[in-house]
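Ex. 9. Protein: Vanillate O-demethylase monooxygenase subunit.
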Amino acid sequence: MAAFARNQWYVAAYGREIGRELFSRTVLGEPIVFYRTESGDVVALADRCVHRRYPLSESRLDGDKIVCGYHGFTYDSGGSCVFVPGQARIPRTARVPSYPVVEQDSFVWVWIGEREPADAATIPRAPWLADPACTTVSGMEPLAARYELLVDNLLDLSHETYLHGGYIGTPEVANTPITTEVDEDRGIIYVSRHMADAECPSFYAKSTGIEGRITRWQDIEYHPPCLYLLHSRIAPVGVVPNADGTDPDGFHVEVVYAITPETEHSTHDFWAVARDFALDDTGVSDFLAENNRTVVLQDVRALDVLERVIEAEPEGYQELSVNIDTGGLAARRILKRLAAGEGAQVVPS
Ligand code: FES
Ligand SMILES: [Fe+2]
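Predicted structure tokens for Vanillate O-demethylase monooxygenase subunit:
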């Protein structure tokens, strides 16, 4: 049994995934049907007809209304039933829950908890993903593992050296100590690793064109529960930003993950890579898209295995944590606080 932080915003989809076709996705154990109204707004309703539970995503749109594919109950975009076959009276309880939705930074965010505290201003930002000054590649991979395993994975990048050798991992990543800071009030975790003189992995050598060794900075900013940002800076070795903060000789890559629990044992692993160089070079875009997807799938494979190990192990197994786990342990603490502090519900398997 896992407690989810329910009164939070979660990424449910990319905006490009939602159109005039009914689209279903489960978030925090709740099946949701998404579509756009004729005016382009995204609607999110519970994907279960109030009559006999038929999935509304298996139904059809009539203008902005969904007509259930089983017996024709018809719902407006707010989830209210406006037509019942064979009778004029519509029962007062004939409605399906609707979820608050915000489209921002190329994502569709949904609020799963109680409707009352949904405040769009609290959604963390990833502005690069919709910024014309950057070029972004992105995707989503299904993960057959609990979301906490992905949080752990992303907050400790020393695994790059071993799990992603030849792609983004070099010896310096695992060998360089991290610094971790936690902003307890805002609930944000920062983990940094600055490598002054490092081998350039192919991911960056091929995309930036830098030859030789690099100065490589990794600055993680995790906004629990859903949004993870890795500010990655690459430059020829010894090149650092100017005193005024400008950085014309650095290459900047923003690696963004949205970590959305699907169920207690599965996760939507949204990933995006935004860059501020080679903006129109489709060769670089194709290379980064394919390479990052390969890296994500290396993690997916490892975490899917870990999920099976955890499910099979005896109760009370104690893992061992070391320095590299400082960020991950802080994340667990904050996630627990978010789940408990908001009266999180236990989601049944
Ligand atoms: S299940 Fe939807 S109308 Fe009967
Ligand atoms: Fe990884």
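Check your answer against this statement. The helical segments are 147-155, 160-163, 171-175, 202-208, 282-312, 326-341.
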